[in-house]
Design goal:
Chain lengths: 740, 168
């Protein structure tokens, strides 16, 4: 296993655009992704998965597979030495199915063999007796159906007690007078399809038995310590007997927050006493991780004649799929941000997530805020039209800011420059319309050569949105960092923060260099073995949390070093916590302490699109955005996050959706699930609004999610402006544009 | 199009001996006809810089050079490249000096997770070989067959422009 540390730095403190510290190994091909790992005597694991979305599982006959050439192990739920269920937040998911399968692709059995092809062939010989059951695939009927989880795993955790079957969580936020009338009312029903994270590097990892009953798992993940805490009980091991080490990660975007091969690989490794590698292919990846929740949102906005919001009423239905994952937090986020970054005195918001037999859903960039932003921004445009007020003026008139409060009653205590991002994005120069006729490559449809531009219309759209930074509702969210000062003046930093491509390795080193004032800082491998948890690479939290932890550990190390007469080696670990949050009241959805969310970040975006209204083809011409980023630790990396995050929102607006039929995924490949290419995604003009966040180290904020939140509604607003159609569902299909 | 020999696909030859020059070194390999070039590179030769992203020739993460021209190595069988020259990401640097396209991707922040990066770099090297001064549009068209999920492509395009000597 590689013990390599990243190359030593020549420059780079907080605020500088230091090139990625893993950049050189990544451009030379030396960087070891989890799929590249090798170990002596290594076997290949393979997962047998359910072909049904819902079925009773009878006998599993492994006899034909066991004796096949090269096969070393065939395991079912009967071979699990510890807990048979696991889960990111609730233990509702079988490690290997028993009694029932609840979604298409659910793991049922495991094989380890000398060669991956042998493992696959043995897997084909396993006979599983299924009795297919009617799949529950309509989330609107979920509460009338037989319960998929009769033991109600998410109840009893301080949430509202909702007795209906198949409720993952339901939350009601009531503020002011929910019956308050305005002069004008607009309403709409909005739908969001299932989006996939579609990271480029499929799930993979290597589990290595340690010879003493424990196991080391080298894996592409987002949250090392919580992986460990889920793996160990299923293996009947103590947490310290399971060590999770971060292997090179090929993108994550929320899709690696839940486990994939970790327990399976470890089971096979301990069973065979050999290292076992598991690599998913793309098809398996589509069923092997959770997705963004599809949603249906009913919204009604009431406003006074002069354009002030009086009352916002929103009902949100999220399809959580077969298992809970992080759905309870997504439910709460969707509710918290349902109104958007606007001030309103009266609100009634119901947010419900249900279990179904559809693909399980959980974390994806934007986490609940994406779905509701699509709805609230469409509503604001409708309201602007009804009131005959400029849509940007209407947004400015209602913009939330410091001192204002959310429908949960939480006052904004930190920075939230909503009006500023709106003004700055609106002030960006939109390019002139390109003349016709022109090269067909520069028309919607491009190389399809479908038009000379006769049916092409141009539209400009605008959207603003916001999202929380960090974990909410009383979660004890912390990050540890350990700093070693060496006798030669160099330093080593240990931190288990997952570098998933977002650039947190640079943040760690830039903070350490700033605090220690030395250039020679090395980053130790990210692992559970040498340092406490860093928490998850999610919720736009890592920059803030790691900055706090590394800063505190560096300062403590220097203090210690001074005490020891500046000669001896120093080794200290410190834990950083952000300001404490408290739960929402289960009955009213109101805050029970100062805050339920730690802080917020907002963004506004303007999009120019051309649409062929006869053929339903689109071309996004230009995107400009202004984003509230706090103090940018690495401006170049911040811009990269904005550009990439925008592309994912554009994908949801125009093309990305997991298709299902009776719960079965029908487009599990990159030929059928499309993501934006170089020709779909224009350059993004981005303005960074750098207001120091008072509660955060160095005044930083998270930056990864706001662009994904605002780009979907901004792109669709441009399409609406071009077509005059309502376009209330994403992704927008050619049929929707043409009106079929 | 590349004219390639399919002579080894005859049924009686379950395993064929092929000679492939990879990054300047000749390799004589016993290959089964069904083995894809990408797995020959990764599993047989240990050149794991070439990544597998999709299995359906959609993503371009496995792009390499075949006789100097970019090709997705999951679309070729190992036996098809008998007698040909392959360049992978590991073969781009000369005497420890990175290729200008590698330098540019690093300096222009043309990558985040980096999984697609070797494929993009190889595609860009092939483009610049044929079109030394491409316009932004030509770059975008040339790289359309490679997917990146992290960057939004802006800095990838910028990196190719920088490597071509355009002020960015």
């Amino acid at each position: 296993m590689s013990e390599a540390t990243v190359p030593k730095l020549e420059l780079g403190r907080v605020g500088e655009s230091l090139p990625r510290v893993d950049g050189i190994p990544k451009v030379t091909g030396e960087f070891a992704y989890s799929s590249d790992l090798q170990a002596a005597g290594m076997l290949w694991g393979h997962t047998v998965r359910s072909p049904h979305a819902h079925a009773r599982v009878g006998t599993i006959d492994i006899s034909a597979a066991v004796g096949m050439p090269g096969v070393h192990a065939v395991l079912t739920h009967e071979d699990i030495p510890g807990e048979k269920r696991y889960g990111l937040e609730f233990q509702d998911q079988p490690v290997l199915a028993y009694e029932r399968v609840r979604y298409f692709g659910e793991p049922v059995a495991l094989v380890a063999a000398e060669h991956p092809e042998q493992a696959r062939r043995a897997a084909e010989r396993i006979r599983v007796e299924y009795e297919p059951l009617e799949p529950l695939v309509d989330p609107e009927r979920a509460t009338e159906a037989e319960p998929l989880h009769p033991d109600r795993p998410t109840m009893g955790h301080g949430y509202r007690d909702d007795p209906r079957p198949n409720i993952v969580r339901s939350l009601v936020i009531r503020q002011g007078d929910p019956a308050a009338e305005g002069d004008v009312a607009v309403s709409g029903v909005y739908e969001i399809g299932i989006q996939d994270q579609a990271f480029l590097g499929p799930e993979s990892g290597l589990a290595v038995p340690d010879g003493e009953g424990g196991v080391d798992v080298y894996v592409a993940t987002q949250w090392l310590h919580v992986d460990r805490d889920q793996v160990a009980p299923c293996l009947n091991l103590k947490p310290e007997q399971v060590r999770i080490h971060l292997a090179g990660v090929g993108g994550a975007f929320g899709g690696r927050e839940d486990l994939s091969m970790q327990i399976h690989g470890a089971l096979l490794a301990l069973h065979t006493n050999r290292p076992v590698k598991i690599v998913y292919n793309r098809e398996e990846s589509f069923v092997g991780h959770i997705h963004r929740h599809p949603a249906k949102i009913w919204a009604e906005h009431r406003a006074s004649r002069d354009g002030r919001l009086v009352n916002v009423r929103v009902r949100i239905l999220l399809d959580g799929g077969a298992y809970a994952s992080s759905s309870t937090a997504v439910t709460s986020n969707a509710a918290s941000f349902a109104v958007g970054p606007y001030a309103v005195d009266n609100a009634l918001i119901e947010s419900t997530c249900v279990y179904t037999n559809n693909p399980p859903c959980g974390a994806m960039r934007g986490f609940g805020a994406v779905q509701v932003c699509f709805a609230h921004e469409a509503q604001m445009d409708k309201l602007a039209e009804a009131l005959d007020i400029d849509p940007i003026e209407l947004r400015l008139l209602n913009a939330l800011g410091p001192g204002g409060s959310l429908p949960t009653g939480q006052t904004i205590t930190g920075t939230l420059p909503v009006a500023d991002v709106i003004r700055r994005a609106a002030a960006l120069d939109v390019p002139e319309a390109e003349e016709l006729p022109r090269d067909p490559m520069r028309l919607p449809g491009g190389s399809g050569n479908t038009t000379r531009g006769e049916g092409v219309r141009r539209g400009v759209g605008f959207a603003v949105g916001f999202k929380n930074i960090g974990y909410s509702e009383g979660f004890d969210d912390y990050t540890a960092a350990r700093v070693q000062l060496h006798a030669d003046g160099s330093a080593t930093v240990h931190c288990a923060a997952a570098e998933v491509g977002q650039g947190v390795a640079n943040v760690i080193l830039q903070v350490a260099r700033t605090e220690l004032g030395v250039r020679d800082v090395a980053l130790a491998p990210h692992t559970t073995a040498t340092v406490d948890s860093a928490g998850s690479a999610s919720a736009s939290r890592m920059t803030w949390m790691v900055s706090g932890a590394v800063r505190d550990a560096c300062r403590a190390a220097l203090e210690e070093w001074d005490k020891k007469g500046r000669s001896l080696e120093v080794d200290v670990e410190r834990i950083y916590r952000h300001p404490r949050t408290t739960p929402l009241d289960p009955e009213t959805g109101q805050v029970t302490g100062e805050r339920a969310h730690v802080a917020y970040a907002c963004a506004a975006m303007r999009v120019v699109a051309e649409v062929d209204v006869e053929l339903g083809l689109t071309r996004v011409v230009w995107i400009g955005t202004a984003q509230d980023v706090g103090h940018a630790v690495n401006p170049q990396a911040v811009q990269g996050q904005i550009e990439g995050g925008t592309a994912q929102g554009l994908g949801l607006a125009l093309m990305e959706e997991i298709q299902t039929r009776d719960g079965l995924i029908t487009n599990a490949s990159f030929t059928d699930y499309l993501i934006p290419t170089t020709l779909d995604m224009p350059p993004v003009v981005s303005e960074l609004i750098e207001e120091a966040e008072p509660d955060a180290p160095y005044g930083v904020k998270g930056v990864g999610e706001p662009p994904t939140v605002v780009s979907t509604p901004a792109v669709v607003a441009a399409l609406r402006a071009a077509t005059g159609r309502e376009l209330s569902r994403v992704p927008v299909r050619p049929d929707d544009i043409v009106g079929l | 199009m590349l004219a390639l020999s399919f002579s080894l696909c005859r049924k009686e030859l379950a395993v064929g001996q092929v000679s492939i020059t990879v990054n300047g070194a000749e390799h004589i390999l016993e290959l089964e006809p069904r083995e894809l070039l990408v797995y020959v590179l990764r599993e047989r030769l240990g050149l794991t810089g070439t990544n597998v992203g999709c299995d359906t020739s959609s993503c371009g993460a496995c792009t390499v050079l075949l006789d100097g021209e970019s090709v997705k190595s999951c679309t070729l069988l190992g036996v098809q490249v008998d007698g040909h020259e392959i360049t992978t990401i590991e073969g781009l640097a000369t005497n420890g000096t990175m290729h200008p396209v590698q330098e540019a991707f690093h300096e222009q922040h043309g990558l985040q997770c980096g999984y697609c990066t070797p494929g993009f770099i190889m595609a860009a090297v092939s483009l610049l070989d044929e079109t030394p001064n491409p316009s932004e549009e030509e770059i975008r068209h040339a790289l359309e067959g490679n997917l990146c999920r992290c960057t939004g492509y802006q800095n990838i395009v910028r990196a190719v422009q920088a490597a071509a000597g355009v002020e960015v």
